[in-house]
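Incident log, structure service

09:12 report received: a user says their structure output differs between two submissions of the same chain.
09:20 pulled the input from the user's history:
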Amino acid sequence: MKYFKILVLLFLVCFSCKERQNESKKEIVQYEPNFESLSKHGAAPEWFADAKLGMYFHWGPYSVPAFGSAWYPHNMYKENGSVRKFHEEHYGDPNEFGYEDFIPMFAAEHFDPEDWAELFQQTGAKFAGPVAQHHDGFAMWDSDINPWNAADMGPKRDILGDIFEALEDRELKTIATFHHARNGQRNKNNPELWNGKGYNSHYAYHPDLPTATEDPKLRKLFGNFETIQGFNQYWLDQVKEVVDKYSPDILWYDSWLNLIPEEKRNEMAAYHFNKGIKDNKDVMLAHKQEDLPKEYSVLDYEQGGRKDSWPTPWMTDMTLGKSRWMYVEGHPYKTADLVVRNMIDIWSKNGVVLLNVSPRADGVINQEQRDVLKEIGDWMTVHAEAVYGTRPHNIFGFGNANTGKGHNAGQSSSVEYTADDVRFTVSKDKKAMYIFFLGVPEIGKRIQMRSIGGYHRNIPPGKISKITHLGTQTKTEFEHTSASFFITIPDAEMNPIANVFKLELE
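09:34 re-ran on a clean worker, output below:
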């Protein structure tokens, strides 16, 4: 009888647990398009804080001329300037050879999504994806809404869909970036902003320019709708289509998102979050400036970053090109040591990097970029435990590098760091701390790190039992006194990019 009562009790407990699980399944959150509801979603899922590195690519019809910048469509219709001159010399008058005439030339005949996904993964990226649509209005997915899309013309391939499939096969998260808020024509009633003087619309406007067309199809490319309200709905419909068809983990927005009315932005966010619930995915948003609330979107600093650590994850988008985002013939690239050292600085401050590469119009990511990416990937492989899944220390580090004023917070993606610049990360379980030297420290040198030693509150989160140099696993001498902390650089092969020491903590 006693055992029978126990079995009944266990049955009731299990039944109760099952009922609660069923009730929990029924309690599916439905986000409403307002701040109160959306703010409950949160900004950065844990997988994003763990990821540290993502990659994307600026690629489209603007890649064909391989001149100037990704703003070629804007500049080719302006009255003066180097791009207009180049266009006239190589393609003729823009009234005769318009931007739409580049699309058949954007054949992407060498595009290999498997190769690109493999390249991104080997570089160390944990998420990746395309510029889904730049300011130019050309969609890189198979669209039923935008007639100007890669599946119907140009490559005649679903670029976004193909790369997403290859990424998901490798269990990488996906990102779709949108820059098309600027595509809408907002200057036609402002003559003082004609001929490219207004920057709230991508295409230069003048009644005599092709961008003023009223052709029902062509005006969609130039964002020249009868009303801006019509364009705003077009903007939203395209994002919804990508969410419905491809379920990206991240929707990322470039500047000028503030030009889209708040109610449309709220509708977009709710739609994305609700699709995440349906797909059982922890999705997220990323934005620039003040274009979305930080309560449910991660702030991105273009080619910049923060001067100090921040309690919540943030993002930096940087390009592998010296300054350009699309492929430009003859444009130089950053070196691997410059990129990695700047990424380390970002990680130490709770940032995540979105690194851009620039394919040619034919779909080739050239060897110069591949060589740099291989160096980055090799470094990431050796030092993975000090990067992925880590969190910032109480202080990010110290050093003498001149970060300047930079974008929003004083850190550029092209800062010249040296071994005198030191950064920290800590494992999530706080069983290890990592010290990064952003260069090659001198062998045998005894380095004082008073900022993490002695009576300071920034001491490691545990007693140091052992220190080793990652890559060579060389045991490293240290001294932790009541006043400071010292580390002696061992006689080991130093990494030419950056060197990391692991502090094992008890």
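09:41 both user submissions now match this output. Likely a transient worker issue. Closing.
09:42 reviewer note: The chain has a mean pLDDT of 93. The chain has two domains: 35-386, 390-505.
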